[in-house]
Amino acid sequence: MPNDKASAAALRRALDIIRDSKGTGTLIFGRADTPEDRLYIGRQRVYDEGRDLKVISWHAPAAAPFYTATVDDPRGLVLKRTIIEEERRVVRLIDEIVAAASSDAPDLTPSTFGDALLAELERSRDGAMRDVIATIQAEQYRIIRSAAEGTVVVQGGPGTGKTVVGLHRAAWLAYNVESLRRTGMLVVAPTPNLLTYISAVLPLLGVSDVMQIHLPALYGGSAVVGRVERWESDRTKGDASMAEVLRRALSDRVDRDPGDVTFTVGADRITIPAASMRDVVADALSRDLAHNDVRDVLRQTLAQVAHSSYLAHQREMGRPAVATASTIRRLNTITNLLDRVWPRFTPEELLRGLYGTQSWLVSACDGVLTVDQRAALYRAPENALSEERWSVADIFCLDELSHLLDGPPVSYGHIVVDEAQDLSPMQARSLSRRCPTGSFTLLGDLAQATGPWVRDTWDELLLHVAPPSHIVEELSIGYRVPATTLDLAARQLGYIAPGLTAPRSIRPGRNDPSVRHAPAEVLGSRLAGLVGSLLADSLSTAVVVDDTDFDRWDAELTTLDVPHGDGRAGDFSSACTLVPASLAKGLEFDAVVLVEPAKIVESSPHGRRVLYVAMTRCTHELHVLHTLPLPSGFSDLIDHPADDDATSVVDGPGWDPVPDAAPPAPAPDSDDALRSRVMSDLGRLSPHDLTLVAALVERLATPTERLDHP
Ligand SMILES: Nc1ncnc2c1ncn2[C@@H]1O[C@H](COP(=O)(O)OP(=O)(O)OP(=O)(O)O)[C@@H](O)[C@H]1O
């Protein structure tokens, strides 16, 4: 059971949301009419006083037409209406399908398909992912509802909704698959940052019993993560051959031929001959049990053999046998013998010993790893003990050892894994052990793999996850990144994953991306000015910098009086967050300012992939600030390094030069304007709908409303 800080924080956050959301949240968000029937769709079922079902829950099969109907294929619906509520007030009604036959909406012109989605996408981001139950799209809905058996891989470009699909699928399965309530479900995010970002969604969906953790927390041991190692070490430790190395390392610690064993009982010296000892150890080795469990069995067997030898000895000497088998089992000699023949280890003890002992490494790695790979494992003993820190790759070696030493971990009926493209084979094995049925949802984008494990297909990873069957589903529509920004980012795809196509963005975006040069001495002030104007536009903003520059920018932003959260520490509570490029994955902000893309490209073997990820984090605006020459993919941009005020602009087809100043944002509705808009929307409701809205308003105003939880 993970007991780390990030998991505890995620749990606390979930509990807060559940507690605070009592009686709030969008109770009803959809309506689907057929000629015969009218269904209201909400977060959960709602009954009236007469126990009549008034609102069905979104995960009920009956809600399917609401999600799958389109103008071209209305699936029997004559009205599909989305009710948008903010802070307990209905602020907008969006009708996407309105048939002439729909008697109560005679004055309405059907709006363009997707208006509800676009309205949802326009909402500002606040550092926490939200649920999207009111606007799930047909291609997403199909994946959310796919069968729990086997593994579903969800491949999709940045912002195609993989994470929301995975989370809604978890909620859907939790509601619809009875057996999963017993066997449990797990959601795994790659980092504490991403866990913090996504952890509100399931509680918002009313799901409180799905465990959410970050990947290294799968291992419940005492090891502290905090070591960053060379690429080669991570790669070697993450490879599946490491499992064989560890198996051998443990096997090397078993003494298969301990020789004659002599012990004393009272005044008698008894010997167990070497051949008997070999048989005892061979019997232990043949058992299909974890190493530390075998030791208990071995203690029994040894005690029996020792007792038999003692009885034979006493018979031979013509003396009475006074010691019982249990007396012999407790003899120090037996414990010492066990420590020599079959020592008990914790995973940390064993791995620490292995890394620090050249001869042991040589024997365990022989024929499995190359000499260089073996050298990457060696850790000088002085680095090993106090203040010990382990790398993430080490954690999965410890997890493998924990399995060999103490047997299988706690398992789950279904596991959802976010950013699965980065999993090492050893991490995949660790997940596989936790879900013996192979029922996984793996969410990822092969183009966004940035660690040591970059793949062209999902096949190799699936070998290690080993599900009984799998399907790969693709998401193709981009919901996050505006089209012109996605076009600019997609230029990187040609370098990193030529086989993949960028998603088709449905987001127009406010502005095209801007690329600005600034001499080194004014880069900071330019950054501060840009961030200031984005914040003045109420855009949540991330400043993404190369990891090695993080501390410098942290200090400089503080000096320049730009309040900002520390994205490295997972603090997303400020309007502006400083984010190291390597931790930007999976996150989302209204605006992103990317500083020195060339540095990001050069910083790691897959720097260009890190850049692609960083460029695809914004929902509205991407700004690039640079002093160094731009990396390829920006080569047709006009650059004026000598000119202080220069603005690099995109010169290719697809968008126009970027103006220096963003156009003013539309003024938010005043309360009065909002009220009159709602009143006018209400005026278009049928009498039946009005009754329902009146009941809804009454219920929202009364905290003790009676909800029937599914
Ligand atoms: N059907 C939808 N309705 C409303 N918003 C949606 C929908 N699908 C996705 N989104 C929004 O699009 C954004 C991107 O979604 P998400 O983070 O799940 O994408 P992703 O594919 O996991 O991205 P990445 O590859 O960067 O990890 C989020 O803000 C999400 O809420």
TrEMBL record:
Q: Name one GO molecular function term.
A: DNA binding
Q: Output the InterPro entries linked to this UniProt entry.
A: DNA_helicase_UvrD/REP, P-loop_NTPase, UvrD-like_ATP-bd, UvrD-like_helicase_C
Keyword Electron transport on entry: no
Query: Which residues take part in binding ATP?
Result: 156-163
Protein's GO biological process: recombinational repair
Report domain UvrD-like helicase ATP-binding positions: 135-482
Task: List the residue ranges of the region (Disordered).
Answer: 641-673
Pfam family for this entry, one: UvrD_C_2
For this UniProt record, the keywords arranged alphabetically read as follows: ATP-binding, Helicase, Hydrolase, Nucleotide-binding
Q: What GO terms fall under cellular component here? A: cytosol
Write down what this protein is called.
DNA/RNA helicase, superfamily I
Q: Which organism is it from?
A: Sanguibacter keddieii (strain ATCC 51767 / DSM 10542 / NCFB 3025 / ST-74)
